[in-house]
Amino acid sequence: MNVAANVEGKHILITGGGSGIGAASARVLSARGAIVGIADLNEGNAKTLAEEIVASGDKAYAVAVDVTEPAQVKAMFDTALSHNDKIDVIINNAGIDHFPAPLTEVDDAMFMKNIQVNLAGVWYCMKNALKHMTATGGGHIINIASVAGLRSAPMISAYSASKHGVVGLTKSAAVEYARANIRINAVCPSFVDTPMVQGVLSKLDERGQKGLIGANPMKRLGKPEEIANAIAWLCSDESSFMTGQSVVLDGGMLA
Ligand SMILES: NC(=O)c1ccc[n+]([C@@H]2O[C@H](COP(=O)([O-])OP(=O)(O)OC[C@H]3O[C@@H](n4cnc5c(N)ncnc54)[C@H](O)[C@@H]3O)[C@@H](O)[C@H]2O)c1
């Protein structure tokens, strides 16, 4: 039995769990014995993945949610708590990006959309999670930010602003809730091979693609499983003294 990053029996809710990093996390965590809630705007993807996991003998369920809608976020928590009376970990992973462009060419609606999904969505989920975890004696909130939340990210200003906000929320809330036995950490990947990044790559010319893929010293995209494995360690009690931190997984980009 694999005892490293043991998450056996933990109830873990993942927003944006139907694709990319969220889906890889759902697979890794359920294979290690967690009960995984796969919440996504794309209900079809969430259901298909939950069925795949259940068919392989592990535990998962799907929930439809738009994280920008507070009432839907509340309903997502209600559904999750109908499956298990405690949520041990929530991974706030749902996110969008925007096509790289100078700030003046990013329209206001796209700025607001990035803030709504990537930042306000995390805010609504954190509020519900903190109330639940305070009442149940503790838990762990893992926010998926980005290296774009830690350093300059030219041409993706709206995305970068939203992810800097997520890192700020993570740090402030971690300090506020440390005594309540609630840990709050962020994960900051560089480019990872997911539908989000494939969408950007498909719109770039060959030079642009090479630049994006080779943007870190390893000269490759991260694999979703590489992020999921770090998330699994964070979900486990092995990371028990860690809160308010940003775990960077970037092929050396920020070194
Ligand atoms: N892929 C990367 O290179 C990379 C790098 C750094 C950070 N991230 C972050 O990781 C997270 C996951 O990204 P990914 O690359 O796996 O993307 P992805 O596009 O493959 O998956 C994102 C998921 O979020 C869901 N989603 C979008 N808006 C939603 C909403 N309003 N409510 C609920 N669900 C919603 C989508 O349906 C999708 O299933 C995002 O927060 C992203 O910003 C990704």
TrEMBL record:
<dbReference type="GO" id="GO:0032787">
    <property type="term" value="P:monocarboxylic acid metabolic process"/>
</dbReference>
<dbReference type="InterPro" id="IPR036291">
    <property type="entry name" value="NAD(P)-bd_dom_sf"/>
</dbReference>
<dbReference type="InterPro" id="IPR050259">
    <property type="entry name" value="SDR"/>
</dbReference>
<dbReference type="InterPro" id="IPR002347">
    <property type="entry name" value="SDR_fam"/>
</dbReference>
<dbReference type="Pfam" id="PF13561">
    <property type="entry name" value="adh_short_C2"/>
</dbReference>
<comment type="similarity">
    <text>Belongs to the short-chain dehydrogenases/reductases (SDR) family.</text>
</comment>
<dbReference type="InterPro" id="IPR020904">
    <property type="entry name" value="Sc_DH/Rdtase_CS"/>
</dbReference>
<protein>
    <submittedName>
        <fullName>Oxidoreductase</fullName>
    </submittedName>
</protein>
